[in-house]
Specification:
Strand content: under 5%
CATH architecture of the largest domain: Alpha Horseshoe
Oligomer: single chain
Radius of gyration: 31 Å
Helix content: over 70%
Shape: elongated
Order of helices and strands: HHHHHHHHHHHHH
């Protein structure tokens, strides 16, 4: 009985191998064929069967032949969709964008515009890495909303934009904090200022304003004597900005120490002394 079972298994494997060989042989013949109508038809079949590699190989041969016909838009759409199905988002995005350029008012324009931006979204890495794809995706989604403001995908798109913007905010915060951690206080001041200006509603705003204040203080403290007064004055200005925005900050103790040291250097003992510094 056991031998009969193994024989059946071997016959089944051989049968599958033969089917695959015949199938591959037929496909290779199809690639070499000059019957473009057949290639076009089979490409659509492969696409529907989610055999995207075969679909794209055939479409790469078929599309040039049908470039000036009424079928060109659909064939280009299937090609872009196939690459998207394979999760080759760089290639898919390129083909979707090309489709939009060629057929800006075509029947696939709205969906292609959405998917082109979604490809950049799918390529966008975590916040620590370069965020070019995140910026491209935001731009693409904004273009989509402007062109198709009544699309049912608008709410979904706005969600993607918020997520990507949060990623850019985090990237900006991490870059600025890196300079601070490296004790490159001048660079940290610039990076923190730029980030706070660009992302004024950042969830890191309180921490970043504190880091900027402390960077200004440490930069002043470690400066040559002839530059210290103006830099301590900048620290004092930043202190008032911080306290105005976060009067009950979790950094209150640290901020108070910065103020006391700055006031001591600038010889501030009462409010009237502040006016004399102006």
């Amino acid at each position: 009985m056991r031998n009969i079972f193994y024989m059946k298994v071997r016959l089944y494997i051989i049968l599958i191998a033969l089917i695959l060989m015949v199938s591959c042989g037929e496909y290779e013949q199809l690639l070499k064929s000059s019957d473009y109508e057949l290639k076009k038809s089979k490409a659509k079949e492969y696409f529907e069967a989610k055999q995207y590699v075969k679909a794209t190989e055939l479409l790469s041969q078929v599309i040039p032949r049908y470039r000036a016909t009424g079928e060109a838009e659909e064939l280009n759409w299937l090609n872009a969709q196939s690459y998207y199905g394979m999760k080759q988002y760089d290639m898919a995005g390129s083909y979707f964008k090309s489709l939009i350029e060629q057929y800006p008012f075509g029947k696939y324009a709205e969906e292609a515009s959405f998917l082109a931006a979604l490809c950049d979204y799918n390529l966008a890495p975590r916040a620590e890495l370069d965020q070019e794809n995140s910026r491209n995706a935001i731009e693409g989604f904004n273009v989509f909303i402007n062109r198709f403001p009544y699309s049912p995908k608008t709410e979904e798109v706005n969600g993607y934009i918020r997520e990507l913007r949060d990623r850019l905010v985090e990237k900006s915060y991490l870059n600025a904090k890196l300079y601070y951690n490296m004790k490159e206080y001048k660079a940290a001041i610039t990076a923190l200022s730029n980030s706070l200006e660009e992302y004024s509603d950042s969830r890191y705003r309180e921490e970043m304003m504190y880091l900027k204040l402390n960077s200004l203080f440490l930069y002043a403290e470690n400066s040559y004597a002839f530059r210290q007064k103006e830099r301590y004055q900048s620290t004092l200005d930043e202190y008032f900005s911080f306290m105005e925005e976060f009067p009950e900050s979790k950094y209150s103790k640290e901020v108070k120490k910065i103020y006391d040291s700055t006031a001591k250097y600038l010889k501030i003992e009462n409010p009237e002394d502040l006016a004399n510094l102006q």
